[in-house]
Design goal:
single chain; 138 residues; alpha+beta; 2 domains
């Protein structure tokens, strides 16, 4: 969106949370892109809250990849052979971050248990547990 200010044309976008016009440093090709860029830089409470939520989601996705993906060996776990449970956990992390659900526990056939929950500090906790037992008898 173009806006006139003191005789100069500026690139601007409207914040979707407060409606304030925000000057953009880069030119947006569409109004949707201008709105997204405005939300990324606006200092209103709604925009800040959304940026924090997106950051929590990205961190949760990283933790899911660490505990269940290829990096799981660094923590003494075997990476999951199927990608579907990992994608489902990422979707659950979004629901937790958005406040739709507070926690979810899922059993991954023959491998482990995963728990994704919201802490009292508003952080998303990702847990992986495996129960191992061994019994030898004569």
């Amino acid at each position: 969106m173009k806006a006139e200010f003191n005789g100069q044309t500026l690139n601007a976008g409207a914040c979707p949370y407060c409606g304030q016009l925000v000057a953009l440093e880069v030119e947006a090709e569409t109004e949707e892109e201008a709105t997204r860029l405005a939300a990324e830089t606006c200092s209103c409470v709604g925009a800040r809250r959304e940026r924090e939520t997106v950051q929590r989601i990205e961190t949760a996705h990283d933790r899911i990849n660490q505990l269940f993906g290829e990096n799981a060996t660094e923590y003494g776990f075997k990476p999951l052979s199927a990608t579907e449970p990992i994608e489902l956990m990422k979707d659950i992390a979004v629901l937790v971050a958005r406040g739709v659900i507070t926690s979810s526990v899922m059993g991954i056939s023959g491998q482990c248990r995963a728990k994704i929950s919201l802490t009292s500090k508003g952080e998303i906790k990702v847990e992986r547990s495996e129960a191992r037992s061994l019994q030898l008898s004569t």
